[in-house]
C-alpha cells in the first residue's frame, strides 16, 4: 500500500509550472522577429481597447441595452463595438461611446 502511494506522488506533476515554461518557450519563438513582434503588439492594442470599453461600461453600471439607449443605437451595435477583435471603429463612434460612459477618449502615438 505504501509503495502505491509513493508511486502516485512521484508521478505527480506540476502542470502550472510546465504550462508557464511552455508558454514562455512558445512566446519567445513566436516573437523572435520584428514582424512577429509588431503583429503581436497590434493584437494586444486591439484587445486592450475592447477590454477598456467593456470595463468602462461595467464600471458605469450600465448594460449594453442601457448604453445603446444613451447612444440611440441598437444593443447589437454596442455588442459589436465591444466585441473582441472588432477593428472597424471610427473616431466619432469611440468618442460618443466614451462620452456616454462619462469618460474621455485619449489617443497616443508611440
Q: How many distinct beta strands?
A: 0
**Domain module count:** 1
Sheet of most strands: none
**Net shape:** elongated
CATH evolutionary superfamily: lambda repressor-like DNA-binding domains
Q: How many H/I helices?
A: 6
Mean pLDDT over the full residue set = 83
Q: Percent of residues in beta strands?
A: under 5%
| Secondary-structure element string | HHHHHH
Instruction: Enumerate the spans where pLDDT stays under 50 for 5 or more consecutive residues.
Output: none
Instruction: Return the CATH topology.
Output: 434 Repressor (Amino-terminal Domain)
CATH class: Mainly Alpha
Radius of gyration: 22 Å
The rounded distance between the terminal residues' Cα atoms is 63 Å
Task: Describe the overall structure.
This protein has one domain (2-100): 434 Repressor (Amino-terminal Domain) (Orthogonal Bundle). The model has no long low-confidence stretch (mean pLDDT 83). The longest helix has 26 residues, at 34-59. 70% of the residues lie in helices and 0% in strands. The protein is built from six helices and no strands. It is elongated and about 55 Å long. By secondary structure, the chain is an all-alpha fold. It starts with a helix and ends in a 10-residue tail after the last helix. 6% of the residues are buried. It has helices at 2-11, 15-30, 34-59, 64-71, 75-81, 91-100. Helix 4 (64-71) crosses helix 5 (75-81).
Amino acid at each position: 500500500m505504501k509503495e502505491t502511494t509513493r508511486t502516485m506522488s512521484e508521478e505527480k506533476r506540476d502542470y502550472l509550472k510546465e504550462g508557464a515554461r511552455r508558454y514562455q518557450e512558445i512566446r519567445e519563438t513566436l516573437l523572435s522577429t520584428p514582424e512577429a513582434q509588431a503583429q503581436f503588439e497590434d493584437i494586444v492594442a486591439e484587445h486592450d481597447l475592447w477590454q477598456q470599453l467593456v470595463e468602462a461600461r461595467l464600471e458605469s453600471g450600465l448594460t449594453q441595452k442601457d448604453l445603446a439607449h444613451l447612444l440611440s443605437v441598437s444593443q447589437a451595435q454596442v455588442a459589436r463595438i465591444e466585441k473582441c477583435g472588432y477593428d472597424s471603429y471610427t473616431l466619432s463612434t469611440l468618442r460618443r461611446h466614451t462620452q456616454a460612459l462619462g469618460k474621455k477618449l485619449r489617443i497616443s502615438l508611440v
